[in-house]
């Protein structure tokens, strides 16, 4: 089945609200932990306009990272301290298996969403214990750009990717490390989400991106009618012609269920969710 989704660029602003409803950690053994053990705090460098972090230098077990006073970063990730007042220990290698995630529910233009998002770091004046829910903190997104982007505007593709990975995670501040041709970080810059979009040339129209997503979500909601144990739905985006960018072709196929390959929710979670749904319907 093939669907042609028509996008109206004049649709206007898309209203989105998000709410933090939970969180969890993934430890070094890739085990789930219902706690804040992998929550990291971002502390800015003393002189962000004059740093000299060589990404080619190995620090501890061959892992490449840079120290930004309160956190470390390898080529793709930053590792932050686990307490807002702690100094980092450069002898401890970065374990990329460790992650911290938050669970959100959102209203995306009238469509209900439930999802998790990996959180790079938070900014907080105090150590947060037990739960993030109801506590004052700011989510921080961490990125690495080439040095030339600091002086030239970047492409919409790069900026939109940076925006999209932080928008629904409620990260309103992005910390960017700019590295030069020798793979050395020279400058650390902080951007609000609005300032980040101004780096794009031509301008990155995120409202149009949200309009696309709204139409796709509505199409999925209308198309998916069978339960997970009856059918697996696959949506394939087809190439868009340059002359007709306002039409988004989607190809929908239905396949037999294969829970071993596709089911991302554990059976115990599905059972509890079904039990909760039954109690709410009484």
UniProtKB/TrEMBL annotation:
Q: Coiled-coil regions in this chain? A: none
Q: Name one GO cellular component term.
A: nucleus
Q: Where is the RAI1-like domain?
A: 81-269
Q: What are the recorded GO MF terms, alphabetically?
A: metal ion binding; mRNA 5'-diphosphatase activity; nuclease activity; nucleotide binding; RNA binding
InterPro entries on file = RAI1, RAI1-like_fam
Classify the source by domain of life: Eukaryota
UniProt keywords, alphabetically: Hydrolase, Metal-binding, Nuclease, Nucleotide-binding, Nucleus, RNA-binding
Cofactor(s) the protein needs: a divalent metal cation
Instruction: Return the EC number.
Output: 3.6.1.-
GO BP term (any one): NAD-cap decapping
Compartments, as annotated in UniProt: Nucleus
Q: Does the keyword ATP-binding apply?
A: no
Specify the enzyme's EC class, one word.
hydrolase
Q: What does this protein do?
A: Decapping enzyme for NAD-capped RNAs: specifically hydrolyzes the nicotinamide adenine dinucleotide (NAD) cap from a subset of RNAs by removing the entire NAD moiety from the 5'-end of an NAD-capped RNA.
Regarding protein family, the annotation reads:
Belongs to the DXO/Dom3Z family.
Task: Name the chain's protein.
Answer: Decapping nuclease
Gene giving rise to this polypeptide: LOC112461773
């Amino acid at each position: 089945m093939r669907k042609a989704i028509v996008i109206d660029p004049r649709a206007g602003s898309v209203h989105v609200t998000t709410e933090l409803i939970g969180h969890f950690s993934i430890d070094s053994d890739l085990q789930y932990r219902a706690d804040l053990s992998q929550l990291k705090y971002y502390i800015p460098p003393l002189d962000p306009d004059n740093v000299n972090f060589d990404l080619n230098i190995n620090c501890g077990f061959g892992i490449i990272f840079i120290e930004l006073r309160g956190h470390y970063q390898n080529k793709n990730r930053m590792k932050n301290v686990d307490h807002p007042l702690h100094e980092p220990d450069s002898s401890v290698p970065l374990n990329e298996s460790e992650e911290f995630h938050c669970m959100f529910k959102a209203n995306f233009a009238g469509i209900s969403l439930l999802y998790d998002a990996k959180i790079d770091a938070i900014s907080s004046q105090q150590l947060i214990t037990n739960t993030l829910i109801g506590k004052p903190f700011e989510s921080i997104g961490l990125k690495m750009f080439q040095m030339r982007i600091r002086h030239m505007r970047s492409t919409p593709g790069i900026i939109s990717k940076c925006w999209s990975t932080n928008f629904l995670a409620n990260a309103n501040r992005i910390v960017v490390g700019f590295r030069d041709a020798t793979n050395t970080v020279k400058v650390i810059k902080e951007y609000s989400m609005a300032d980040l979009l101004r780096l794009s040339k031509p301008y990155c129209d995120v409202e149009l991106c949200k309009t696309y997503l709204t139409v796709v979500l509505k199409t999925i909601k209308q198309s998916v009618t069978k339960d997970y144990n009856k059918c697996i739905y696959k949506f394939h985006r087809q190439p868009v012609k340059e002359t007709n960018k306002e039409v988004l072709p989607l190809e929908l196929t239905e396949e037999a269920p294969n829970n071993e390959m596709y089911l991302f929710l554990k059976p115990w979670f599905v059972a509890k969710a079904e039990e909760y749904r039954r109690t709410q319907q009484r």
